[in-house]
Amino acid sequence: MGDLLITVAPTGAETTKADCPQLPTTPEELVETARRCEAAGAAMIHVHIRDAEHRPTLDPARLKDTVAALRESTGLVLQLSTGGSVHDPLDQRLKVLDAAPDSCSLTMGTTNFGDDVFSNPWPFICELYQLSQEREVVPEFELFDLGHVAALHRLLDKYGAPYGGKVHCDLVMGVPGGMPGTADALVAAVAALPSSVTSWSATGIGRSTLPVGLASLSKGGHLRVGMEDVLTLSRGVPVEHNEQLVSRAVELGRLAQREPMTPVEARGLLGLA
Ligand code: KMH
Ligand code: ZN
Q1: Is 149 within 8 Å of 193 (Cβ atoms)?
Q2: What crossing angle do the helices spanning 183-192 and 146-159 adopt, rounded to 10°?
């Protein structure tokens, strides 16, 4: 029985294809990445898609086609990003749920994001959460800051449990503008989580990926890895394929005597049918 959920976030919305040609941006590259990451030990995929010019998009038809293609070729739990890029309008971000993923990301507050602002006003959070309940999509609450943890208490108090009855969140650490990617910050955030949280993972951006991953394992958390969050394996050594990051997460997990969950086990963890 696996007890470590590994989520892969292979693409994101921030890195350009020109800067990183090995970033999976086409549907074919995304499917190939998903298959290899599943074989390496990932159980869930957090998906951002790109258009024909490799630019971030929330095009509804393309999202539906992506969901179909990934379902056909993998058993991974399929999570679509509702965060998109910092430039995506809120109404388009709500429409992501029309593509009927298993899970969707749901960021619990506005945050500075480098030089940009990742906008998540409270009324938008509430609307997206209620829509996820209605559409039977399991949210993954993205927590970039301690204030987001407080907002999660407020949301669950007001609107009750997510679809499926489990509460899963992901600490996104080390974003310039959010909480730092340190063990101390992780411990503080975990201590503040609502008691109804049934599972949590953590991801550290850039060079915080290893400290955050190790801290998460030592606190009993799960791992999110992928080229959305980190593009080097060590200083000056580029990631050539997301599979390398998944394999490294499996290795770290094994050192901590944790075995990767299968997608079926992950479905149980997340309250998916
Ligand atoms: N690309 C970031 C602005 C999510 O996927 O929900 C937002 C993000 C979070 O990646
Ligand atoms: Zn994302």
Answers
A1: yes
A2: 20
Ligand 2 centre to CA of 136 (Å) is: 20
- How far apart (Å, rounded) are the C-alpha atoms in residues 43 and 3? 11
Q: Which amino acid is at 224?
A: R
Q: How far is the CA of 163 from the centre of ligand 2 (A)?
A: 21
Give pLDDT tens digits for 111-123: 999 999 999 999 9
CATH number of residue 250's parent domain: 3.20.20.70
- For residue 1, tell me if it sits in a domain: no
Domain, as residue range, for 163: 6-270
pTM score over 0.90: yes
| Residue 226 · residue 195 · CB < 8 Å | no
Q: Per residue in 124-160, pLDDT tens?
A: 999 999 999 999 999 999 999 999 999 999 999 999 9
